[in-house]
Each structure stands twice: as C-alpha cells, then as structure tokens.
Design a protein that fits this description.
single chain; mainly alpha; 8 helices; 75% helix
Length: 178
Amino acid sequence: MDWLTFIAEIIKATAWPIVLAFILITFREPLLKLIRSFADRPLEAKWGDKEFKAGVYDVKRRSENLPVPQEDKRLFSIISKAPISPKSTIIEAWKNLEEMAISASDVNANTPLADIRISLESAGILDDSQSTLFADLQKLRNEAEHSSVADLNVSTAIDYAEAAHRLARYITEQKKGL
C-alpha cells in the first residue's frame, strides 16, 4: 500500500465522524432544545386507556344518582354491540343521548352541543351536576372516537352506554314533567 492509498483510506474512514461532529457543534443549541422538549413531555403509552376507564367510571358513578330507567330495547340494542365494537357502542350511546337532548331542548339538530346544554339548563331540565355529566360524556365520546380500537374494552363501553342512557332517559322524563 502506498502513501496516497493510505491517506485516502484514512480520509474515508474518518469522514463521517468529522461531518457528525461538525453538525453537532453547529446545531448544538437547537438540538439541546429539541432534546429538552422531549424530556418535558409526559410519556403516553397505554396509560390513555386507564385514563379513559377512570373517566367512564366517574361518569357512571355520578349517573347512579339519576333514576334508574326501565329496561328498553334501545339500550339493549346499543349494549349488544359492545362485544363486537366497543367504540361504536360508545358512539351510538352518545348519539342516543344527543337525540334526546335535542328533542327536549326544542333546538334544531345543527345547534352546537354547548348551546343545547345551556338550553337544557335554562329550561330547568338539567342542573349543574347533570350539565357537567353531559359535558363529560361528550368529552369521553370524543376521546373514544379518536382513540384506537384496541384501547377500548367491552365493560367500559357498557358502563358508558348505561350512564349515557340514564342521562338520556332522565332528560326525557324531565321534559315530560314540565
């Protein structure tokens, strides 16, 4: 091996470490900011599922102070889909609650949900705790809609459906009583 070949081989072997060192030195501050931003973020692995379950448990617990509705075919129809698709069970339970809320508040279907809730409050159909329950059910429905199917389980979907159904039936009964 002659001197020129030797020098060429050394340059080939050290080229990428030199380029990497140059990049690290040149972009040191932006890279440190990027690394710090990752360190400041909380990790979300499968904890989102536990958070969702806790939210559903909370709304179920709060809905238990509402009168127990009679068994009806609508609830059975919604719950029967849970083993096949927990996500669609939650979405359908929400749609049922939304339909009852719209019909009780005498607004059209294009009215924003916040306005529907306010309408139900001002009509005396919902008090503050029930209005919060309505908002929490909506939030959980949105989380379910945008989560992966694997994150939802059957019992959580059934609990959600029962809580939403209790509130829907309560709204209907309150509207009848006015």
